[in-house]
Amino acid sequence: MIPDKLFKSLQHSFQDFKMLYNGQELEPGYKPDYVLKRNNEYIILESENTSSRKTYVGGMMKAAHFLQNEKKGKLVFIVVPKENTKALSIAKHLTPYLNWVNGKTNLKEVYVIEAKQYYNNDQLLALDCDDFYSCALKV
After folding, report:
1. Residue 89: phi, psi to the nearest 5?
2. Within 13 A of 60's CA, how many CA atoms are on the CB side?
3. Which of 16, 45, 115, 123 is the most interior residue, by most CB within 10 Å?
4. Is the pTM of this model over 0.90?
5. 49 Cβ contact partners less than 8 Å away, ≥ 6 residues apart
6. 135 and 120 Cβ atoms separated by less than 8 Å
7. Neighbour count for residue 121 (Cβ, 10 Å)
């Protein structure tokens, strides 16, 4: 598990995107854990330690709602797997909802990656490196 305060203080990176928010309100009622931005493109990161699938669907719907009109981007869930909720099951659960919002929003990509693969021994994966894409599950 990556403690919330630590997660928000890490230097998450993707190409030439810059940190926009780390826990502040992105729009009314929506406070993702970390947001990177370049022009009108966003990378939204959510660190979750829950097995509630509703949390993941809700987080994805909030990202989809935000990413409308000129705003586009992707969402990354960094998860702590539980015995009854693994990264693969979360990704599979999100698939029909992502398909449903397709065409209604500019959220085009959602990834799920285990926390220990994303952040291990004080090493953080860059969101645009080959290791990220080999470890993360694309919804």
Report:
1. -70, -35
2. 27
3. 45
4. yes
5. 1, 79, 80
6. no
7. 5
- Report, in this order, helix, strand and coil percent for the chain, each rounded to 5: 30, 30, 35
Residue 117 banded pLDDT, cuts 50, 70, 90: very high
SS3 12: coil
Tokens of 94: 């999100």
Q: Is the pLDDT of residue 2 over 90?
A: no
Domain span at residue 109 reads 4-138
Closest among 34, 6, 5, 30 to 20, alpha carbons compared? 34
How many other CB atoms are there within 10 angstroms of residue 18's CB atom? Answer: 10
**Cβ–Cβ < 8 Å for 35, 26:** yes
User: What is the Cα gyration radius of the chain?
Assistant: 14
Domain count, the chain: 1
Q: Measured in whole angstroms, how far is the alpha carbon of residue 74 from the centre of its chain?
A: 7
User: How are beta strands 72-79 and 119-120 bridged, if at all?
Assistant: unpaired
As a whole number, mean pLDDT of residues 30-34 equals 94
